[in-house]
Design a protein that fits this description.
The structure holds two protein chains of two kinds. Chain A contains two helices and seven strands. By secondary structure, chain A is mainly beta. In chain A, strand 5 and strand 6 form a beta hairpin. The chains are: A mainly beta, B alpha/beta.
Chain lengths: 104, 571
């Protein structure tokens, strides 16, 4: 399980480093965020939610029956907009609202 | 290396759900200064980083706290502390109201009543539960938070044959700073222990597990080392989860009414029983007998139900939604495969943890425990952990008020020449000056997980164990402890990893002693002793333990405590 940090998008604010519950993110020599030990990531998405420029995505690897599909998330005033890119390249958007309880 | 010394009235170790809530409560009800020491950042640390799907412990109209105690007691085959379950159950609805006040969304009907999912669960949106709890703790001027500081050892003193808490020692996970945190009262709230056993998923995805992989058993380890009494560690918790993602199954099972079926499509739950342990055991048995894989039968649910499941999982385990959508096969078109996780030691679900009084004080004077680290009260879930934090907070406040009345204007003891603290800091330092290790922390950790998996009832043996295997496991864990002590650190990050391994090895050692001591099978899968495959009347008791000065684990057997009794430590 792991995340991918897009170095081109990363603005070096290190909010992801500060929030990671596993202390797994660090700054590289060019002041960009990187994941120190990808195999130690829990996949909790705290860093995805924290990133102001959506530079972090969750990637589904082959060990979890994935083929590199991704999940990204953008914070809104009422919750989050999530985007899944499936193995065929199709994008599905899902909107969650903090004020709306789960149906189940 | 810089050493920072900080003194407060109360120290809370671990800023998860229980720690944050207790901090806020103590501040609300007293003028005591509170410090939370947190390994990561309280905003998203601990079990609730991604959110939680429901509040699973609530007393709905028409039910009583006694009903909840009875449910938890039965589910745990009688090995529970009924006094702890009762005091906790009585506060469940109070803490739920508090969560709502903090801003948690709880589903309500047109009349403003909570909508339940079953007789003891509430429907919520729990994605933001951790930031809400962190905000609650942080809003008081009396609460200070030390993020990115890892605590490893208690500071104690022996007086009149009693061990009393003085504080704790730790280090920054990023800067070259050691910390000595002194306090009159300490709450341990570090969560349970994951990563003791080889996990379901392989190396590159090893942390895609059910329980928080960063809960490494620090609180148990500190207590064991300090000679605190522990209870029921042998009641491990194994979660029945969605295959690969290890995401919760309750939302699917209860939400869309999906039943567990084997490869032939047969429902098998009734064959094995419906307790938490039996549901895992049934799935294990079906697979053993060649009828796996097992699934939750979701095929045929409506498109609307499927969309609702996608959203519900985004609010607690987003990887499951990703997995469903990744291959274009959602739960409406394909059943959801389920599997048992590796075993964990976690007192929020099982009864393992600190042996405490009804007030949640441990056997160390002034040290209280709440949440997953606290034993005797299984099925506590989030609200139970908060209720426990509330009970501990009240006890901490009244204890310090009583102290102040008895001895007004008392000065805290001088902390120079703290030999115990110096010894702990020296140990940290030793890892930086140790010769280069031939073995990495990862290698030693995987060796531990292999030993536990093969000889102490891991996935490999379908969770069952026997005495012959445990004897080997015990010896190997001791050897790995020697290896761990000699590991070299080049950074604070590496020191953290070395200490996380140390914690896991200490917990593993104590767990083996507990598994050995229960010479029966009390809970299928959770504690499956193949030398003694039946439940035995003479084991209707608590298996407790204490570490002796020479490092051996001494087993203590104690009779069951009644519901209405108030338990206080007497020996």
């Amino acid at each position: 399980m792991s995340i991918r940090i897009d170095r081109d998008k990363c603005v070096g604010c290190f909010r992801c480093k500060n929030i990671c519950p596993g202390n797994l993110i660090a700054a590289d020599s060019e002041r960009k965020a990187f994941l120190k030990r990808p195999y130690d990531c829990w996949g909790c998405t705290a860093c995805l939610k924290e990133c102001p420029v959506c530079a972090v995505s969750l990637v589904l690897g082959p060990e979890l029956s994935g083929m590199g599909e991704t999940l990204t998330v953008k914070k809104t005033d009422t919750g989050y907009i999530w985007e899944v890119t499936d193995r065929f390249g199709r994008v599905k958007q899902l909107v969650t609202n903090a004020g709306r309880a789960n149906a189940y | 290396m810089e050493v920072k010394i900080i003194r407060n009235d109360v120290l809370i170790i671990g800023g998860g759900a229980a720690g944050c809530y207790a901090a806020g409560k103590i501040a609300e009800r007293s003028g005591l200064s509170v410090l939370i020491a947190e390994k990561a950042n309280i905003l998203r640390s601990g079990c609730l980083a991604a959110g939680v799907n429901a509040l699973n412990a609530y007393i709905t109209p028409g039910h009583t706290p006694e009903d909840y105690v009875e449910y938890a007691r039965k589910d745990a085959e009688g090995i529970v502390r009924e006094d702890l379950l009762m005091t906790l159950s009585e506060r469940l609805n109070e803490v739920t109201k508090d969560l709502e006040r903090m801003g948690l969304t709880i589903l309500k009907d047109a009349d403003g009543n909570y909508v339940s999912r079953g007789w003891r669960n509430l429907k919520i949106n729990g994605e933001n539960i951790k930031p809400l709890l962190a905000g609650y703790a942080g809003k008081s001027e009396h609460v200070k938070v030390l993020n990115h500081v890892n605590i490893t050892d208690f500071l104690t003193e022996k007086k009149d044959g009693k061990v009393r808490i003085r504080g704790a020692a730790g280090f920054s996970t990023e800067k070259e700073v050691f910390y000595l945190l002194y306090a009159d009262g300490v709450l341990i709230a570090t969560g349970g222990a994951s990563g003791l056993y080889r996990p379901n998923n392989p190396g590159s995805a090893r942390h895609k597990m059910w329980y928080c992989p960063f809960n490494t058993g620090a609180g148990y380890a500190m207590g064991i080392l300090a000679g605190a009494e522990m209870t029921t560690l042998e009641m491990r918790f194994i979660a029945l989860r969605c295959k690969d993602t290890l995401a919760p199954t309750g939302t699917i099972a209860q939400g869309v009414g999906a039943v567990q079926v084997n490869a032939k499509g047969e429902s098998y739950e009734e064959t094995y029983g419906s307790s938490t342990a039996e549901r895992v055991w049934g799935t294990v048995e079906e697979k053993k007998q060649g009828r796996g894989p097992c699934c939750l039968a979701t095929k045929g649910i409506s498109g609307e139900q499927e969309e609702d499941l996608y959203l519900a999982y985004l609010n607690m385990a987003p990887v499951q939604t990703l997995k469903w959508l990744a291959g274009g096969k959602g739960p409406a078109s394909e059943n959801v495969e389920i599997d048992g996780s590796e075993p964990y030691v976690v007192g929020g679900h099982a009864a393992s943890g600190y042996w405490v009084s009804t007030d949640r004080e441990t056997t160390i004077d002034g040290l209280f425990a709440a949440g997953d680290v606290c034993g005797g009260a299984p099925q506590k879930y989030v609200t139970g952990a908060l209720a426990e934090a509330l009970i501990a907070a009240e006890a901490i406040v009244s204890r310090s008020e009583a102290k102040r009345r008895k001895n007004p204007g008392a000065k805290s003891a001088e902390i120079e020449d703290d030999v115990q603290a110096a010894g702990i800091l020296e140990k940290y330092q030793k890892h930086f000056s140790a010769p280069e290790s031939f073995f990495s922390v990862q290698q030693a950790e995987e060796a531990m997980q292999k030993v536990m998996d093969e000889y102490a009832g891991g996935i490999r043996t379908n969770y069952s164990y026997n005495e012959a295997g445990l004897a080997i496991a015990d010896e190997r864990i001791r050897e790995l402890q020697i290896l761990q002590e000699g590991l070299r650190a080049h950074s604070m990050d590496e020191l953290l990893q070395i200490y996380e391994l140390r914690e896991r090895l200490i917990v593993a050692g104590a767990l083996i002693a507990h598994l050995r001591a229960r010479k029966e099978t009390r809970w299928h899968s959770f504690q499956e002793n193949s030398d003694h495959p039946q439940k035995k009347k003479e084991y209707e008791l608590y298996i407790n333990s204490r570490m002796e000065d020479d490092g051996t684990i001494r087993i203590i057997r104690r009779p069951l405590t009644g519901r209405g009794e108030k338990y206080e430590h007497s020996d």
